[in-house]
Amino acid sequence: MDQTFVDLLAGNLAHAAAFDDRFDDLQAAQHPHTVTVCCSDSRVLQDHMWGNEAPGRIFTCGNIGNRVVQRTDEGDVVSGDVLYPLAHTGTETAVVVGHTGCGAVTATYDALTGDVNDLPGIEGCLDLLKPLLEPGVEALPDDLSRPEAINRLVEYNVDRQVDVLVGSDDVPPGVEVVGAVYDFQDVYGGDRGEVHVVNVDGERGVADLRATYPAIEDRIRRLWVY
């Protein structure tokens, strides 16, 4: 067996020893206060980015492109993995977390601006992103470098995923939807690994968001106002 997995199992023993008594109140049910939808990426540490070590606190979902949409025979709907905690466990906050340098956004950008073919499973994921990102690609300023364009589309993708949740009748009333970007490239300033809020319930204006949420005004930043 590969030594890397052996090392992972050893790390799990340390985890189990530290967490053994943290599941006492969670044996029969869970009531997380937040569901996060993050991009599936080895550089995006879903619980650690929030400093979370409490089981039952955050319901974590991950997929390439931090998508909240899945395709069904009836059309595109809010993904069940996102909707489940909102509909069944009393979760009242949904956070869509994009990240700088996103590979899924990059692949979608390349597919929209060129001729890129990938494996069917990956193509299926990109096909869900393409209609959401295509207007953003067309609106990009002409003077951006490729990395700058990608990171602005990361924000744009977060905005569109937030829009889906805010506009869905399947999401219970009163759920707050936050859009954020996890920055490990020092694009936004501050320390690498910081989360920056770019959208709340569809509002993207930085000044308005800071006025409405003064407790986090220093965490509200955007690269692109469109």
TrEMBL record:
The keyword Transferase does not apply. Its cofactor is Zn(2+). It is an enzyme of class 4 (lyase). Binds 1 zinc ion per subunit. InterPro entries: Carbonic_anhydrase, Carbonic_anhydrase_sf. Keywords: Lyase, Metal-binding, Zinc. Zn(2+) binds at C39, H99, C102. It comes from the Archaea. One of its GO terms (molecular function) is carbonate dehydratase activity. Belongs to the beta-class carbonic anhydrase family. This is carbonic anhydrase. It comes from Haloplanus rubicundus.
